[in-house]
């Protein structure tokens, strides 16, 4: 049976003999992954039973109370939140009961996509999977991209000050694995991937929904701890397909169906 590894930072689950070189969701290295030993219990079919969600790995437990320990990722019951199929509103009591678990659950509702961020350094190219890409302003046209400092692409962006974003389609989940589960330090990720060279010299996936090229504003670059937040002015961009872009929620749903 394939081993399962959980990211200690974001809860991402990886299947394979070894943990990934880089987490495709939050960008941390393999040392932040731990091996899962237990299988999740199958929920009962009782409609009246309460449903509890683990805010670390999304495991669903059915019962009157949350489990003492999550059978999937091992966290305690304080990381579980009660799910409801009914529309509910906030109360003063719920505001007062905010904790680490409810905060994580709230953050999970923020929608974001999965992109290939690429750059160049000394005529060498590299790309990685990233989810933290956002438009900041229309005039000037400006975006923000957050990359883990351990990643090779981060090194390239810091050196060249340029980057490109390839927006993936829903049927390109394999690109997440290709660019997110291996390091450019040991493999040229673009060897087998058709790409075009943009105005700034960065590689752009030839097969994508859209692309954006941007120049980093050094005076607006922010050190946010494990990551660097790059603020950049958009230089070029174009839509190539009208198909739906890949989101992290869709990616997770497809992974769960495959299990």
From TrEMBL:
<keyword id="KW-0560">Oxidoreductase</keyword>
<dbReference type="InterPro" id="IPR048574">
    <property type="entry name" value="RUBY_RBDX"/>
</dbReference>
<dbReference type="GO" id="GO:0010181">
    <property type="term" value="F:FMN binding"/>
</dbReference>
<feature type="domain" description="Rubredoxin-like">
    <location>
        <begin position="2"/>
        <end position="36"/>
    </location>
</feature>
<dbReference type="Pfam" id="PF21349">
    <property type="entry name" value="RUBY_RBDX"/>
</dbReference>
<dbReference type="InterPro" id="IPR012349">
    <property type="entry name" value="Split_barrel_FMN-bd"/>
</dbReference>
<dbReference type="InterPro" id="IPR024934">
    <property type="entry name" value="Rubredoxin-like_dom"/>
</dbReference>
<dbReference type="GO" id="GO:0042602">
    <property type="term" value="F:riboflavin reductase (NADPH) activity"/>
</dbReference>
<dbReference type="InterPro" id="IPR050268">
    <property type="entry name" value="NADH-dep_flavin_reductase"/>
</dbReference>
<dbReference type="InterPro" id="IPR002563">
    <property type="entry name" value="Flavin_Rdtase-like_dom"/>
</dbReference>
<dbReference type="GO" id="GO:0005506">
    <property type="term" value="F:iron ion binding"/>
</dbReference>
<protein>
    <submittedName>
        <fullName>Flavin reductase domain protein, FMN-binding</fullName>
    </submittedName>
</protein>
<dbReference type="Pfam" id="PF01613">
    <property type="entry name" value="Flavin_Reduct"/>
</dbReference>
<feature type="domain" description="Rubredoxin-like">
    <location>
        <begin position="49"/>
        <end position="83"/>
    </location>
</feature>
